[in-house]
Amino acid sequence: MLDDFSNARPDVVAELRMLTTPDLAVIEGDAADGTAVRRLCDEHDVDSIVHFAAHKSVPESFADPLRYYRNNLLSTLNLAEIAVERGIDRFVFSSSAVVYGTSGQLPVTEETPPAPQSPYGSTKLMCERILADAAASSGLRVIILRYFNPVGAHGSGRIGELPVAAGQNLVPAVMRVALGESDRLQVFGDDYDTRDGTAVRDFVHVMDLAEGHLAALEADLGSHQYRVFNLGTGVGTTVLELAAAAESATGRPIPCEIAARRPGDIVESWADCSRAAGELGWRAKRDVAQMLADHWRFVNCRRDVPAH
Fold this sequence. Notes:
Number of domains: 1
CATH class: Alpha Beta
Helix content: 25-40%
Strand content: 5-15%
CATH superfamily: NAD(P)-binding Rossmann-like Domain
CATH topology: Rossmann fold
Distance between the termini: 23 Å
Structural class: alpha/beta
Strand order of the largest sheet: 3-4-5-10
Largest sheet: 4 strands, parallel
Number of strands: 12
């Protein structure tokens, strides 16, 4: 595993080793640094690459788009070059449903025309195109996984979403309210053309996503060099519905405050995952209630861990 720990805590490595294997190899380095990646390949028998290394906040990408283009594109370009150079056969790329933007077609299929509405979404689509061209010109086989909205945590409560810089993702914000660390949840817009006026998202459990990556690594692509798959539940949940579900999961009130819409926010989006079911044998198994229960367990486990 290669990580520069720019937005992750090094103490998570001990938790990962406890949940996987004590000799899990972890190297501190930047995926955009060719020297670091080649050293990793020299020291370990690398036959596949799973690329998660990206900045991923829509609002932050508007504030600092060049940082997003530099990090997200350079890391992908570097890893693709090294994969082709080393004859690495399988490349799994973590993309995002933000590439679709607000689509007039619901549920969203892999054939829905991309129309990203943020610099972050644009970087993901550009990375997909880099990888598509690399696959077309070499023996590299590429699988693109377009996540919808990842939430939840490992069922043990040992690992979950814990960035160094607090982001603006919805579920962590909900949990901060439940913990009493925030007074209320900011809901960005209640005047959308949806059933309660708030945005609709397809929330998918991170453990379902992990299983989707394993399925991608093991998949027989047949004659395909490049394939795109949606990973979601196929169910849309509004922001207010999620807040109500969080009240049930935590037993705590989640007061909401309506704020202005944010640039780049998508009105509604949920996935058609029939291709992943048919070709990868993958389906999401966990519902919103379990996602929130697992995330709540994780944040409470973290509160019991002494500060380092």
